[in-house]
Amino acid sequence: MRLLIMGPQGVGKGTQAALLAEHFNIPTISTGDIFRYNIKNKTELGLEAMSYTDKGELVPDSLTNKIVKDRLAKEDCKNGWILDGYPRNAAQVTEMLADLDTPLDHVVALEAARDVLLERMKKRAAEQGRADDTPEAIAKRLETYEKETAPLLDIYEARGLLVVVNGVGDIDEISGRIISHLE
Q1: What is the pLDDT of residues 105-128, one digit of tens each?
Q2: Does the active-site annotation cover 69?
Q3: Long-range Cβ pairs for the range 142-151 (8 Å, 24+)
Q4: Residue 36 known to be catalytic
Q5: 88 included as an active-site residue
Q6: Sorting pLDDT into bands at 50, 70 and 90, what band is 158?
Q7: Model pLDDT for residues 54-73, shown as the tens digit of each residue
Q8: Which one of the listed residues 2, 71, 120, 141 is annotated catalytic?
Q9: How far, CA to CA in Å, does 107 sit from each of 18, 53, 147, 149, 161?
Q10: Given 12, 75, 148, 171, which is the most exposed site by the fewest CB atoms within 10 A?
Q11: Angle at CA 139, nearest 5°, toward 133 and 145?
């Protein structure tokens, strides 16, 4: 199964992607995790990514596309994958689908109210000490999502791929809703 999981920051994409990966026995490819690993280890890529994330900006498409394409070429992705945090905009969708020559099976969109998202990210920042979860950075990322990423949902809906799920509630309950739509 080849899935995209989408939604604004703080909606629970990473949590749900991990549970879906386990259920379907496929890897999750999270651009956020890839970038955080590189930032933590101060790699060249990490330092470049940090110059954007510290300001609440998204990492440029060229850098993100390269990382995702390389990751999807790995052996563990042959039977499917879940992309978390990618694609973020129409240019990435077009390039990714053409490069992969592999159709998507579904796009899962998690939804939650803005106040819920802000509270979750505030809690995450306190628990994980994430420098990219400042109030200013959060607000900027949510605005960027609404402007650049949310419009992709219309594209996926027109292609018959979109599954919209309420991202509020018990984690297992949310997973159950997603799986029932996919199976």
Answers
A1: 999 999 999 889 888 888 888 888
A2: no
A3: 142/8, 142/9, 142/114, 142/117, 142/118, 144/57, 144/58, 145/8, 145/9, 145/88, 146/8, 148/58, 148/88, 148/89, 149/6, 149/8, 149/88, 149/89, 150/8, 151/90
A4: no
A5: yes
A6: very high
A7: 887 878 888 787 777 777 88
A8: 141
A9: 15, 25, 19, 13, 6
A10: 75
A11: 100
137 token code pair:
């950075």
Q: How far apart are CA 22 and CA 122, in angstroms?
A: 27
Active site residue 122: no
Measured between alpha carbons, how far is 146 from 88 in angstroms, rounded to an integer? 10
Query: What local confidence, expressed as pLDDT, does residue 94 receive?
Result: 64
- In the set 2, 13, 71, 177, the catalytic residue is 13
Active site residue 78: no
> Residues 6 or more apart from 168 whose CB is under 8 A from it?
112, 113, 116, 174
Q: Which of 2, 88, 120, 177 is catalytic?
A: 88
Do the beta carbons of residue 117 and residue 142 sit within 8 Å? Answer: yes
Looking at residue 27, what is its pLDDT?
96
Does residue 93 register a pLDDT over 70? no
